[in-house]
Amino acid sequence: MEQEIDTTQLGEDIVKKLKTIYDPEIPVDIYELGLIYDVMVNTDYEVKILMTLTSPNCPVAETLPKEVEDKVRGIENVRDVEVEITFDPPWSKDLMSEEAKLELGML
């Protein structure tokens, strides 16, 4: 019988992995920066990540979503990954965590 995998724990593992990915222009990880809007894991261990970029003209618009997909796909038990980019709502500094604001000297 296949072992049951806790989707909540898998979601937490995904967030930990996302916190290892940094915006190349801002020395803060993409999760604390507020670029990740949602992480969804279904019971088939398929992952959908809704994220944004700091701007539509972001220089890493082509590479950052692919890096997110590749790193999350590498997590044990993840069967499939879809990364969707949205600009609704547009990213703003208000989406940054307190930790990110402190790191950037904004507090």
TrEMBL record:
Which SUPFAM superfamilies has this protein been placed in?
Fe-S cluster assembly (FSCA) domain-like
- Tell me which InterPro entries the record gives: Fe-S_Maturation_MIP18 (IPR052339), FSCA_dom_sf (IPR034904), MIP18-like (IPR002744), SUF_FeS_clus_asmbl-assoc (IPR014291)
Top-level division of the source organism's lineage = Bacteria
What Gene3D superfamilies does this protein's entry cite? Fe-S cluster assembly (FSCA) (3.30.300.130)
- Give the MIP18 family-like domain ranges: 12-85
Record PANTHER family: FE-S PROTEIN MATURATION AUXILIARY FACTOR YITW
Q: Please give the name of this protein.
A: SUF system Fe-S cluster assembly protein
Record the organism. Answer: Flavobacterium pallidum
Query: Lineage of the source organism?
Result: Bacteria, Pseudomonadati, Bacteroidota, Flavobacteriia, Flavobacteriales
